[in-house]
Amino acid sequence: MEQAIHPLATVAAGSFVLIYAYFRIFLLAGSATAGFLIWHVRKRRSSAWPMVNATIENFHLIQDGSSPVPVLHYSYSVQNEFYSGELQPRDFPTDADAVDRMCRSLQGQRILVRYNPQRPDTSIYINADQAAGAPRSGFSLRGWLAEHAVFRLRD
Question: Phi, psi (5° rounding) for residue 12?
């Protein structure tokens, strides 16, 4: 009597590693796509939210590989209630001391943020708003970085 062989018994062990690697790549690509879509929908939906002046209050640095990444904390007020948010600039120096100097010089600067009228504690910083509202806010993070080109910006 012949014994039945399980179909997976004939697959080489190296194939499982390859299948697992493809599976992880598929999951990573799917997660990145989902994250981008969520960000895009939120940005698109938030473009109709009202704008308000905000002030950069403080910052902290997180390590991203060998480079520090600044996280700027801002505050704003809606109907005499104060709220806060944070943003991560896309263009920033790669040197830790330069990042620290940049962040310290940004403290107290005013920016424009949009807030959700149904939930004013939810806000978003949109760089394009800064140019449109420059006379009101007097500040554009991208413009500031361009003017202070003593820092080497990431490509």
Answer: -70, 150
pTM exceeds 0.85: no
40 with 56, same domain?
no
| Same domain (yes/no): 28, 92 | no
Query: According to DSSP H, which parts of 13-140 are helical?
Result: 13-46, 96-106, 127-132, 134-137
**What is the predicted pLDDT for the residue at 136?**
43
3-state secondary structure 123-147: EECCHHHHHHCHHHHCCCHHHHHHH
Amino acid at 110: R
Who wins on pLDDT, 142 or 50? Answer: 50
Cα separation, 102 vs 93, in Å, equals 8
Residue 121: strand, helix, or coil: coil
